[in-house]
Automatic annotation (TrEMBL):
SUPFAM superfamilies: MFS general substrate transporter. It comes from Acidithiobacillus ferrooxidans. This is MFS transporter. InterPro entries: MFS (IPR011701), MFS_dom (IPR020846), MFS_trans_sf (IPR036259). Residues 274-472 form the Major facilitator superfamily (MFS) profile domain.
Length: 472
């Protein structure tokens, strides 16, 4: 029977039906996006988020402020924060212990317990030696948890799941850092309560870990997949695809299981290569900025008249934005070359520290200019991190695993050295020395970073892959 309705009505009904169909497709796609994390996220990721809140959010703000408020010794900040950074360098120890003794779960839980106890007793035992020792233990505990967290994925899950699981793991940690920075603004007037609450926050982290951590290697063969063999296979291309939480703007907790010093045996092989020049550049920048990031809550308050609560809030918002900028850094590196993006990031940081130093010599409003410089310094890190990772893989004359070890070790050692240097600098010269030494380090890094990557540079080929191809 023929349809006697108006043709316009029929077309209108078809258009409505088409719109409804498109809406259903969009809704189904949105539901799929919401369900996607269920495939990769585990309950114990929340424990790692709490670690980010405490180690990367609360402590960098509360510890320097507490030390200065209780002792009035500016140099003590460098030694206590240097102890914390020194504790983070224990990562290779935990990785080797886990590989040899298969103590992943005990190391993970002991790391939380050590961090918890160090923070709980710190407000009650003032003193440079006591604080430094407790801070060292706190750094070692944080390093143990961070190292085991990554190893639980790369040693207990199949290789095709590493990328999304590591991405979500670090996203949880970064989100925890943002929350911790926001909470730090609440506790800046009561440091003792802040540290005690930080310790208490780790109790549910232990409970969450006990619920969700894998007890064994599932159905995979430990003898084949654990240890250095798997970590050597980690690919820089997916390491650079997602955000890394920053500890004091330098990312010492970033893939702590790669903080391996074994690559130092190859150091002599690359002294005169472009990779050696890049490592010197990376070292100089990390060394220069370390002192500022040890003191920044105190410096922003004392030298720039910025309240600690405002500093932590601005840092939190900037860190949240920075999580998105990692993908931008990857896209820019692919389009313009990692070498250019690396030097652009150093220029941004140079401008930021330049603003911090400029206010000491010109009659301009310190607070506003200092906050602008601080934001530039933090926002430049994603570009520096992604481009630096890419340059490591492209320039290395040997395997990417050893190159990543040297890359992370150079930045970590430079951070520890620069942090300890901050004490005498502030004590004898004052707060302008923090931005001045940062400018010098960045300038050296920028000059030695020139011409690292030629336009026709190809990605580095992993030695193991090349050997397999040769055999086939």
């Amino acid at each position: 029977m023929a349809d006697t309705r108006n043709p316009g009505t029929i077309m209108g009904e078809k258009a409505i039906a088409a719109r409804i169909q498109r809406a259903r497709e969009h809704l189904d796609r949105f539901r799929a996006i919401l369900k996607e994390p269920d495939r990769w996220v585990s309950v114990w990721f929340l424990a790692y988020a709490l670690l980010g809140a405490v180690s990367s959010g609360l402590l960098p703000i509360l510890l320097p402020l507490m030390i200065v408020a209780l002792t009035h010794h500016l140099s003590w900040v460098a030694y206590v924060m240097g102890g914390f950074n020194l504790g983070l360098l224990t990562s290779p120890l935990w990785g080797n212990l886990a590989d040899s003794k298969h103590l992943h779960r005990p190391i993970f839980f002991c790391g939380f317990l050590v961090l918890l106890m160090a923070l709980a007793v710190m407000p009650f035992f003032p003193g440079i030696l006591t604080w430094s020792a407790l801070s060292l233990l706190a750094g070692a505990g944080s390093s143990a948890v961070a190292t085991m967290a990554s190893l639980f994925i790369v040693e207990f899950d199949p290789q095709n799941e590493w990328e999304p699981r590591l991405g979500w793991l670090q996203t949880f940690n970064g989100g925890g850092q943002v929350a911790g920075l926001l909470l730090a603004g609440i506790f800046v007037s009561n440091f003792k309560l802040g540290l005690i609450c930080s310790a208490l926050a780790l109790i549910p982290a232990i409970w969450l870990g006990a619920r969700g951590l894998p007890a064994g290697a599932k159905s995979y063969d430990w003898t084949v997949e654990i240890g250095s063999h798997m970590r050597r296979d980690l690919d820089w291309r997916f390491l650079a695809n997602f955000g890394h939480p920053e500890l004091l703007g330098g990312g010492l907790l970033r893939f702590s299981h790669h903080l391996s010093l074994q690559g130092l045996r190859r150091f002599g092989d690359m002294l005169h290569t472009r990779f050696g020049r890049f490592l010197f550049s990376w070292f100089a920048v990390a060394f220069g900025v370390a002192a500022f990031f040890a003191y920044f809550p105190v410096a922003m308050q004392k030298a720039y008249n910025v309240a600690p609560a405002l500093t932590s809030s601005v840092y939190a918002m900037t860190a949240a934005i920075a999580l998105v900028l990692y993908s931008v850094g990857g896209q820019l590196s692919g389009r313009f070359g990692a070498g250019r993006v690396y030097r652009w990031s150093l220029m941004l940081r140079f401008l930021g520290f330049g603003l911090l130093l400029l206010v000491f010599f010109l009659p301009i409003p310190r607070a506003l200019i200092a906050l602008a410089g601080f934001v530039l310094i933090i926002i430049a890190w994603p570009l520096q991190s992604i481009s630096g990772t890419s340059l490591t893989a492209r320039l290395t004359p040997f395997s990417q695993g050893e190159a990543m070890g040297l890359f992370n070790a150079s930045g970590a050692v430079a951070t520890v050295m620069g942090t300890f240097l901050g004490g005498p600098l502030v004590q004898f010269i004052g707060y302008p020395s923090l931005s001045a030494i940062a400018l010098v380090g960045i300038l050296f890094g920028w000059l030695t970073g020139h011409g690292l990557q030629t336009p026709d540079a190809a990605p580095a080929i992993h030695n193991d892959v090349a050997a397999q191809k040769a055999q086939s």
